Amino acid sequence: MKVLVIGDSCQDVFRYGTCDRLSPEAPVPIFLPTRTTGNGGMVINVFENLKALGIECEIITNDIRPVKTRYVDEVSNQMLLRVDERDETYPITADTLQSINYGDYDAIVISDYNKGYLREADIRYVAEHHPLVFMDTKKKIGNWAKDVEFIKLNEKEFNENWFTDFELYYNGNLIITKGKKGARHIDYRDQTATINDFPINNEHEVRDLSGAGDTFLAGLVVDYINNNDICKAIEYANKCAAWVVTQKGVVVVDKNKIK
Fold this sequence. Notes:
Blueprint: E1 2-7, E2 9-18, E3 32-42, H1 43-52, E4 56-60, E5 67-73, E6 79-85, H2 94-98, E7 107-112, H3 120-129, E8 133-137, E9 150-154, H4 155-159, H5 166-169, E10 173-177, E11 183-187, E12 194-198, H6 212-227, H7 230-244
Helix pairs in contact: 1-6, 6-7
């Protein structure tokens, strides 16, 4: 199996440290850095998780990347502050999209953080050129997404009416991630909404939510292209996300830990 991943990327930086007292100048903690870690984020995290789950994949993304720096208390693992630099990126070119040999891939994964790399017309073009497209997007969904087979949103996005006239035109699968409550699948393929819920059955300690949505998306794609069963794929994606939130920072899933 071979997958192409397209979307915005960033550099994730975690600065861990201690906070033992408040500043005398203002009611804020004094942060003493002890160590720094970093890795590629957003679409790169999806890409790395797909590879970790055994899928051959390629990536198309921006070269100049925004930087997200998180300041985290080492003891409690609580994030105190996040600083985003260069929060927008340049758009993908039409030549890049048109040069892709779409037939080389079993699936296309779009991870769109709405930082400017992918426009609505770009996503429409990709979905028109491949029958199996998975998409996680921060855009308000409209008619441009009608040919995307699987759309993943989180519960907050869904509840905020992330789409316009969705049921009137969409003919695919909507997957809503609900944090510790698991995920929901809404099947619109027969012009009616068939709803199934997939809870996470095992209690687990949540240490860091960073990158959990990317891991869920990667698990969903891998299991679906191997088994062609979206229900089993959601269950597997739940397990992948449930494991990754027990780790510190943005980490890549370990397929040997997913039971």
